[in-house]
Amino acid sequence: MRLPADLDARSLSDLKALVIALVVKVTELERTVAAQRDEIARLKGLKGRPQIKPSGMEKASQAPTQERAAGKRRRKRAKSADLTIHEERIIKAGPVPPGSRFKGYQTFLVQDLVLRPHVVRLRRERWLAPDGQTIMAAMPSEIVGHFGLGLRRFVLAQYHQGQVTIPRLLEQLSSLGLRISKRQLVRFLIAGQDGFVDEARAVLRAGLSGAAWISVDDTGARHRGANQVCTQIGNDHFTWFGTTESKSRLNFLELLRAGHTDYVINPEALAYMRSRALAGPVIAKLASHPTKHFADEAAWRGHLARLGLGELTVSPDPVRIATEGALWGAIKAHGFLPDTVIVSDDAGQFMVGQHALCWVHAERLVHKLEAFTDEQRAAQQHMRCLIWWFYRDLKAYAREPSARRRTELRARFGRIFHRRTGFVMLDRLLKRLQANKAELLMVLERPEVPLHTNGSENDIRAQVIRRKISGGTRSEAGRNCRDAFLGLIKTCQKLGLSFWHYLGERLAIPDAPAVPRLSDLVRARCAPA
């Protein structure tokens, strides 16, 4: 199609028709090019482009459920089946004709929410004893200050679970008729919350003591106007968050101590040091010294100084490696990570103990690779197709593991990642993934270990949303409370508990449903079958 010589002379309707014709022509050409590209791939012995969306690796490899495969439809359960009836009214039918028979009632449920201020004026008796002493009635045990427990629960739920900012929460309470200051709201959120912080730490200890696997991730956080790092640790039964200044391996090991402050030299610590290439004479000094347990960092640093390790200027840094080893020894001494696999996105700080890698992040490296020619694009798409098919079969193996399938999948991994496509950057990436074979194929030895870190990605989104809504924290108490409550909310969700009921029970609100210690539930869920 040729363009007219003078477009200015054409009418608006003619120009619109011309544009439409050009769009149709371009669309036809794009289809022709795509068909030719597939035909070239077929003639070269390559498989065509995978009929899978470019993102959503997990969904793309999801096998249909048995119910859908069998054509069955699940019956929907009534949403009102578990409702508690608080009030019952009988609606009269009015005048009825004589001789009518009563046939019972037709039930109709109405759900409502009562949200209003409830101000109580306490009048405490005062008596004057004969000896001149004034006797005053004691305050009820549930009264703490001038604000009730129900208001405290509402503020905690709105701020942490509802992600409402303090200014909006203050405006909301004021519009309801409550007289409260911003300073008092902040006190509700951070003052006297040690019990919640301790329970969050107990949840972490319970999870690390018995979990078959944990997945980890981190994201940025703001504290006192500076950038910090929030680390997530969890699995299908619990979640814990910790915000610190660093994202190093040393920092991660400190978090895995779950609040303990000691350093321990034991066989596990010495084995860690050997795996990190610490010099043999240094290991011998640490192993031969009679003192093996150090209460805190000051005692440990003093021990290293007395051994003269701080004076060594070699690589790797002996002080750092020895400290990491002593932290790993403390983790094992407290019974944490007994046979636990750590699943991560290949970030270096998480490479400790038994380790597995996320397949979604591995495939993403291939997906984001920039291709410049048709041959490179064809090689890239072909490798992505092979990886997705292999990932799908790994998921099938995890559901029904067998020795024969394990052997086949190991051999197939080698055939995929030993390929050389001629696309230099892709070949380097495949070589890198081949080097991570043990971590990528951990599921073959431990079928219960997930193939991805989607759970961590979902958990840590709560921290990202809080950062975007409220910025950062200003005090240590505020930072600890933010991490603790977000972790407790996620843990309650995973355990099938109501966070509202949890707050009511922990705040000792009358008639609140009983909620067991979350650490006990996590320990029971993580216990081996």
Number of strands: 9
Distance between the termini: 72 Å
Q: Specify the biggest β-sheet.
A: 5 strands, mixed
Mean pLDDT: 89
* Helical/strand content category: alpha/beta
Number of helices: 22
What is the overall shape? extended
Can you walk through the features of this model?
The protein is of the alpha/beta class and about 525 residues long. About 50% of the residues lie in helices and about 10% in strands. Among the domains are: about 195-350 and about 455-495, no CATH class; about 360-445, no CATH class. The protein contains 22 helices and 9 strands. It has a 5-stranded mixed β-sheet with strand order 5-4-3-8-9, sandwiched between helices. A two-stranded antiparallel sheet has the order 1-2. β3 (about 215-225) and β4 form a beta hairpin. The longest helix has about 30 residues, at about 10-45. It is extended and about 105 Å long. The N and C termini lie far apart (about 70 Å). The model has no long low-confidence stretch (mean pLDDT about 90).
List the SSEs and their pairings.
Blueprint: H1 12-43, H2 57-60, H3 66-69, E1 126-128, E2 134-136, H4 149-161, H5 166-175, H6 182-190, H7 194-210, E3 213-223, E4 226-234, E5 239-244, H8 249-256, E6 263-264, H9 267-275, H10 280-288, E7 293-294, H11 297-307, H12 318-333, E8 341-344, E9 354-357, H13 359-367, H14 374-399, H15 403-417, H16 424-435, H17 437-440, H18 442-445, H19 454-470, H20 476-495, H21 499-506, H22 518-526
Parallel strand pairs: 3-8, 8-9
Antiparallel strand pairs: 1-2, 3-4, 4-5, 6-7
Helix pairs in contact: 4-21, 7-20, 7-22, 8-12, 9-12, 13-14, 14-15
